């Protein structure tokens, strides 16, 4: 069974400092990995994805993520955080197994608070 | 601008009443997910459809919950009878299966359900 772990419930960072949100995953086959962001009272918005190819993927709003197969990690990063980045961030995985239904599994979420 | 549409956005109902939540997936998407979000449990996958057929509904309480796709443009999630512990935000998401172009799921704005 596939699973996703986000070890930090909350990350606090000062505006202008680098932001990292951690994610590790577990799948049987090859993973598709995603990051989503959720602002208060809103649905989840897609940020970026890793499918194949370059391990460093770039997404919306200046975010990027690095896929590390040996560590089964997909950490989200932003070089310089903004107050407006304060939100709930979710890591997710879909597994490339034809018979498995390819369901989308989310981590528990990490709340990011960027202070001025 | 293609989007997943969920109705109603908010629902307050009394315990024991039937609740029906509706979702219109993005045209052309053949996979539909239902998630429930609570503070305690985070994002839980309730059901997952492909081509209108349920592939995985193991996360859904079978005694009171049911999910269907009467046609390709409508997915429904019903709770009968509703209980206070069902109070949560219910999200619908749609997408394409991995391996067919876009692999990310697109989320609706959610239905905030309160059972009193």
Structure, described:
With 116 residues, chain A is mostly beta strands. Helix content of chain A is 0%, strand content 53%. Chain A has no helices and 12 strands. Chain A has strands at residues 3-5, 10-14, 19-21, 24-26, 31-38, 44-50, 56-58, 64-68, 73-78, 87-95, 104-106, 110-115. In chain A, the strands form 3 sheets. In chain A, strands 2, 5, 6, 10, 11 and 12 form a 6-stranded mixed β-sheet that branches. Chain A starts with a strand and ends with a strand. Chain B contains no helices and 11 strands. Chain B has strands at 5-7, 10-13, 19-24, 31-38, 42-50, 53-56, 65-71, 74-79, 88-95, 106-107, 111-115. In chain B, the strands form 2 sheets. In chain B, strands 2, 4, 5, 6, 9, 10 and 11 form a 7-stranded mixed β-sheet that branches. A 4-stranded antiparallel β-sheet of chain B has the order 1-3-8-7, with no helix packed on it. The A-B interface holds A 32, 34, 36, 42-46, 49, 51, 90, 94, 96, 101-109 and B 4, 31, 33, 35, 42-43, 45, 48, 50, 55-56, 91, 93, 95, 97-99, 103-110.
Order of helices and strands of chain A: EEEEEEEEEEEE
Unreliable spans of chain B: none
Please state the overall shape of chain A, judged from the principal axes of the Cα atoms: globular
Task: List the total number of helices of chain B.
Answer: 0
Helix content of chain B: under 10%
Biggest chain pair interface: A-B, 22 and 25 residues
> What is the rounded distance between the termini of chain A?
41 Å
Largest sheet features of chain B? 7 strands, mixed
Note the beta-strand portion of chain B: over 45%
As a percent range, the share of helical residues of chain A equals under 10%
Structural class, judged by helices and strands of chain A? mainly beta
Question: What oligomeric state do the depicted chains represent?
Answer: heterodimer
Largest sheet of chain A: 6 strands, mixed
Look at the structure and give the mean pLDDT of chain B. Answer: 92
| N to C succession of SSEs of chain B | EEEEEEEEEEE
Put simply, the count of helices of chain A is 0
Name the structural class of chain B.
Answer: mainly beta
Shape of chain B: globular
């Amino acid at each position: 069974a596939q699973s996703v772990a986000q070890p930090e419930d909350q990350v606090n960072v000062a505006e202008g400092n680098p932001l990292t949100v951690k994610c590790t995953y577990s799948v049987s086959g090859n993973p598709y990995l995603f990051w989503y962001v959720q602002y208060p009272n809103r649905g989840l918005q897609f940020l970026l994805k890793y499918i194949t190819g370059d391990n460093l993927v770039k997404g919306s709003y200046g975010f990027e993520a690095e896929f590390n197969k040996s560590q089964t990690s997909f950490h989200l990063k932003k070089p310089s955080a903004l107050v407006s980045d304060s939100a709930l961030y979710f890591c997710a995985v879909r597994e490339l197994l034809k018979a498995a239904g390819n369901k989308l599994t989310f981590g528990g979420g990490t709340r990011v608070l960027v202070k001025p | 601008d293609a989007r997943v549409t969920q109705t109603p956005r908010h629902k307050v109902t009394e315990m024991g009443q039937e609740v029906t939540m509706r979702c219109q997936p993005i045209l052309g998407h053949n996979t539909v997910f239902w998630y429930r979000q609570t503070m305690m449990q985070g994002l839980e996958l309730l059901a997952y459809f492909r081509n209108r057929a349920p592939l995985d509904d193991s996360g859904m309480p079978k005694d009171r919950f049911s999910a269907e796709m009467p046609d390709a443009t409508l997915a429904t999630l019903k709770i009968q009878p509703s209980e206070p512990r069902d109070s949560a935000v219910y999200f619908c998401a749609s997408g394409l299966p991995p391996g067919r172009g876009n692999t990310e799921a697109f989320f609706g704005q959610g239905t905030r359900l309160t059972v009193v």
